[in-house]
Amino acid sequence: MAQAKISAKASEGAQQQHQQQQQQSGGQLRGRFYRSTSMADRSSRLLENLDQLELRVEAFRDAASAMEQEKETLLEMIHNIQNSQDMRHISEGEREELNLTANRLMGRTLTVEVSVETIRNAQQQESLLHATKMIDEIVNKLLDDLEDAKIRLMSLYGACTSDVPAGPIDQKFQSVVIGCAIEDQKKIKRRLETLLRNLENSEKSITLLEHQKSSVRQSCNSKRD
């Protein structure tokens, strides 16, 4: 009888222990499940934050690029004023004063340093160097033949634009530019636009100067007659 009671208690204890183990095991599983859900939520929130930051980073780079362009535009405008025909037709004292102001503005503009680095692979770096070299070769010969340099620059520019070009396209330059990074392609196009504008302004200045010389000669001839 006593032995039977002992056996019953031992069996009851084993059953209780088994139930406790099952409860602990279930708790651990539930704990792991809850932790997994929490990790997924955190990962989702972090990914969403990074996506938002990526948009801000791109907007930041775009704003910096716009500032780079604005700096280039300001310097070009100041330079054009200093070399304009109007500056040649004012008194020496006024021209000196205006040049001082222009130099001051140029100096203040140059104090602003804005640089957006472009990430390039080896091929894109090589393409950029090649494209820059092709442009520089034309620029270095500007004074030798202004009209030929303008035609060649226009053919390079035609290779960079999606619009229908007014003249021939430099196919070799186009293949080089296609190998450049997108940001570099935009900068190359802007540089060519600036060069062509400067050439156009130079031609206008030369034409105006020749017209003035012709008028002076005609006036002198009239006086002689």
Write the layout of secondary structure elements.
Elements: H1 2-82, H2 85-88, H3 92-110, H4 122-139, H5 146-158, H6 171-178, H7 182-224
Helix pairs in contact: 1-3, 4-6, 5-7
Describe this structure in words.
This protein has 225 residues and is an all-alpha fold. It is built from seven helices and no strands. The protein has helices at residues 2-82, 85-88, 92-110, 122-139, 146-158, 171-178, 182-224. Helix 1 (2-82) runs antiparallel to helix 3 (92-110), helix 4 runs antiparallel to helix 6 (171-178) and helix 5 packs antiparallel against helix 7. The N and C termini lie far apart (157 Å). The relative contact order is 0.06.
Helix-strand pattern:
HHHHHHH
Oligomer: single chain
Structural class: mainly alpha
In terms of DSSP E residues, the strand content is under 5%
Tally of strands = 0
Tell me about the largest β-sheet.
none
Tally of separate helices: 7
Arithmetic mean pLDDT: 80
Fraction of residues in H or I helices: over 70%
Radius of gyration: 38 Å
Pick out the low-confidence regions: 1-6, 27-31, 208-221
Q: State the distance separating the first and last CA atoms.
A: 157 Å
Based on Cα principal axes, name the global outline: flat
